[in-house]
User: Fold this.
Amino acid sequence: MTNYLKLASWDVIGILGYLVLMLAVGFYFRKFGQKGLDNYFLAGRKLPGWVNGIASAATAMNGDVAPTYCGMTVVTGLFIYWFFISRFSLALMIAAVLFAVFWKKLNLFTSPEFYEIRFSGKLATTMRSWIAFRSAFISIVAWTGAGLLGLHKILNPTLGWSMTTTFSLIIPVTLLYVFLSGYIGVVSTDVIQTAVILISYVVLCVAVLIDFHGPTGLYQSLVATLGTDVVRWYPPSQNEMLGVVGVFAWMIGTAVGYGGDAAPMGGAMEGQRIFSCTNGREASKFYIWALVVLFVLLSLLTMPALGAMVRWPGLYTGEINKETAFGLLIGRYMPKGFLWLAIAGMAASIMSTIDSNLNFGSQVFVSDIYRRFIKRNQTDRHYLVVGRIVIFVITGLSILVATKATNVIDIAIFMLGLSSAELSANWAQWWWWRFNAKARVVASFCGPVIFILVGLMVNLGGYFVKK
Assistant:
């Protein structure tokens, strides 16, 4: 029989208090958000870079991040830092230095509008419409579904909550404050959620270090249990999960093309954040703040996972599912009276992703598809109603993804694979004047098709080998 953690009365009060605070923010900003499309989707274009940066970092800390990054840590070791250094550090700096100011100068309402400025004719219209459609109903749906699934993978083994219970607690609250306040409510709650995530990670990190009598004790325990390979500061030349080749591949793969498209299918959606900043300088600061906050959060998240390698060596050897590491840490180390904080932190991680995704998805659908092809010359009130309806559609599709998928990492790999062919095109459309609409369309449509076909061929090959 599984021993689930029990919530005390103060834990319930703490969780409910956090959820009420999120709703209060939504109600506070509801009048501002209802004044027009600029207010609802871009917060009046008056946000400072630090607010957008912190909000972006919170959005990146999706519900799948804790089980995924802790899972990667327990099968690698201390050099896991190289994964998130290669995953986003160079890419965000490139975007801050080379692209942020120019995106802001375009003064667009949505990032897909760029394609009708850069290109012309029917192909430009096709690109704008396709980018908007895939952002709203493919990319955002997949990443939101991954986050919901990741949260379930934590709360189910630790608290015994079913997927229905978890979703019933998180989704209605998020829907309501996004519905009421729009983007200003999204970034405001994201800043609060970042603080909640940060505090919960700090408490867990301190608890693990106390158990091992400090960093030195943790280091010595790792060496005694698993050897020196897991405490090296640099990645090994050969490692199934994260070798030197893998680090360079991640760094190049995520950096090439980054910033050239502010709504790529690989997960980022910075256009809305850039256009909501007050000026180009603040737009650049947004990327820098996001980089710093992400590094701090991921460092605090992965350090306790090193302790999990000692307490549950089966995580390292594969005898225990690596994605359960974070849940095991919560169950063993979260101090009495702080369980609510851990749950609130996990809720914050997915809510900060869902709220941003919902607002952005409805924005691009309304502006780049509905207002151009379905209902033109309507009032802002009409478009706000449509945008709010789309929020519910995206949520429903995301729940479907979460219920049908089994592994969080599979969703991430699939989405990154679909977007890989576009990476070089994202830079070419800015820096190479000969790069035309036909080339951009080929990169957007043919790349994903080839990726899917290759995947099918590999699966078929494996099937026949087993036969």
About this structure: The CA atoms of residues 109 and 275 lie 7 Å apart.
